[in-house]
């Protein structure tokens, strides 16, 4: 509540909002379009024909264009930001990335994050370090990507919100 009959949507959480074992289901999901795959793949400089050339891809074992793993990782990682690290001061690590099932144009992706650890920052007394494991799932519930992410968050998110009008 920021005023009479007025609320502000919350972006990101603070250190104390992340108990170990907490699971966050991120919504909305995101349906991958051909434009998404083509644009992000081209911007990354990835020229593998499996991601861009329908004629080539049709003659491979999958029989169609495979969405670039970088697109998948970006979408799933991006889905988590609003709830988890919207107030982050820094991403500290992205580890143990695994692509477990293919993603195709037209698939809808969802993300789920489990908080696996947290500790106070030794070098930044007003901040904490959160570690989480994120899973990306397709519309059929198949896991398509998993990764561990570590990021820095404020101990007092309300002070950050007050100072930034967030």
Shape: elongated
Q: What's the count of strands?
A: 5
Oligomer designation = single chain
Q: Based on helices, strands and strand pairing, what is the structural class?
A: alpha+beta
Task: Give the C-alpha Rg.
Answer: 18 Å
Major sheet summary line? 5 strands, antiparallel
- Record the strand order, biggest sheet: 1-3-4-5-2
What is the CA-CA span between the terminal residues? 12 Å
Low-confidence sequence ranges: none
What's the short story on this structure?
This protein is an alpha+beta fold and 166 residues long. Helices cover 25% and strands 34% of the residues.
Please describe what this structure looks like.
25% of the residues lie in helices and 34% in strands. The chain is built from five helices and five strands. The chain has a five-stranded antiparallel sheet. The protein is α+β, with helices and mostly antiparallel strands and 166 residues long.
Main features:
single chain, 166 residues, alpha+beta, five-stranded antiparallel β-sheet, 5 strands
